[in-house]
Amino acid sequence: MYNTYYLKFASQEEWDTKAAEAGYRYEDPETEAVHYSVSPGAIDVVGVIYNDDAVFDEEGEMTSPPTAKDGWHVNVRVRPKTAFAENEDDPDVDVTLPEVLNNYIVEPQTPSRVFA
């Protein structure tokens, strides 16, 4: 069983910074190509999401493109893990997602993209 988190950042740059802090961003030193991964799990960098508000004329030609929703969107699916709290009276603490990403969690009513 996996937990899926929908994350929203102000920009791609903010995601890159936080992904590096979380240990999810890797750069190939030879090619400088950037990769995102988590094990066990998956990362889906969605990027910009658009509203369903494009306007088309009678011939089907777009007369007004869709508008972008705010933010840079990323979906993360990770296996749940729990850590014991500091004292025995406290409940266990969910440490599935790195703490640096917790402030970026959003809960969309209808996600634009999901893991199959």
Structure description:
- The protein is built from 1 helix and 10 strands, in the order E-H-E-E-E-E-E-E-E-E-E.
- It is mainly beta.
- The longest helix is centred in the first third of the chain and has 11 residues, at 12-22.
- The model has no long low-confidence stretch (mean pLDDT 89).
How is this fold's topology laid out?
Blueprint: E1 3-9, H1 12-22, E2 25-27, E3 34-36, E4 41-47, E5 55-56, E6 62-64, E7 72-78, E8 82-83, E9 93-94, E10 105-106
Antiparallel strand pairs: 1-7, 1-10, 2-3, 4-7, 5-6, 8-9
What is the subunit arrangement here?
A: single chain
Strand residue percentage? 25-35%
- Could you give the distance between the termini? 13 Å
Helix content estimate: under 10%
Number of domains: 1
Q: Let me know the number of strands.
A: 10
Low-confidence stretches: none
Shape call: globular
Quick recap:
The chain is mostly beta strands and 116 residues long.
Characteristic terms for this protein:
9% helix, 116 residues, mainly beta, two-stranded antiparallel sheet, 1 helix
